[in-house]
What we know:
By secondary structure, the protein is an alpha/beta fold. It has helices spanning about 20-35, 55-65, 80-95, 105-120, 230-240, 245-250, 280-285, 315-335; strands at about 5-10, 40-50, 65-70, 100-105, 125, 130, 140-145, 150-155, 160-165, 180-185, 215-220, 240-245, 270-275, 295-300, 310-315. It has a seven-stranded parallel beta sheet, with helices on both faces. A five-stranded parallel beta sheet has the order 12-11-13-14-15.
Amino acid sequence: MDENRGICIVAELTPEGRLADVTLELVEKSLELKKKLNNEPVSVILLAPETNLEDIISELSKAGTDKVLVSKNKNFTTYSTEFFSKAAVEIINKVKPSVVLIGATTQGRDLAPRISSLLNTGLTADCTGLDINDKGQLAATRPTFGGNLMATILCKTFPQMATVRPKVMPMGPLNHETDATVEEFTFDFEHIKDNVEILNFIRNIESSGIENADIVVAGGKGMKSAENFKILEELADVLGGSVAASRAVVDAGWRPVSEQVGQTGKTIRPKIYIACGISGAVQHTVGMEQSGTIIAINSDPNAPVFSIATYGIIGDVFDVVPALTKKLKDIKKTR
């Protein structure tokens, strides 16, 4: 434990070669955790093809990263479990961090278990919260028992590992003036056999727009039918927002999976989230509880959603939403 110091983040690049937002979100969170670890360094492992990485390194530096641990190799052009995990493990073994963080993306969910297995350490997956306890241990919080409870998990081995869902943590300003130290690593991959061959990469272009929307109007089973979502679409249209749904709604076939918010859906943090006919079970709230302002509309005064709502309206969603839409339209006409 004494030789393990600092927080190390395994960066992720988008198919376009841009730094994934979740990496910057993890850097910002690590800067917060760093204060509880006697200002131990925050490092980022950057595995990338043999291209110019100056802009990415500059972005990480401005985000507050202390060190960027770079390895350039043609085998990093597209993601490979074999190449990425072996390189990341070798770097981690050399720098010996006490904490390793990875985004809980499709790539991260594949990479993190392989790294933890090779390092023979524990991994807390799909976290929604991170902290350092009074003993200097990483306290990772995630939904458990089907999302009915939130568990805080400690790892007894080092490095302590966790994956964190995108959007559950804020991205900090890129205004740090201290330049990050850059250290380069080279690897010989000739002896590594890649068991998976990428024949083609087809980007999933289905998107509802809720990931980047400032205002989201979401509906749950309380909407009663797919047709009734029309009143939510009208409200979202007036507000210039997007429509989202709970898992129960998607499972019922009322709305597409691209609109699903929650533990098994998307995690979003809009400025305003309007929950209509949503009870507020943990499975759903973990995907939207970081929203700026949460407005809950529900006829049940005991609905759990009111416990996290900024404002609560107890009433029939089929009365409240149309009345709210009409009022907003009237206000717009007067401007």
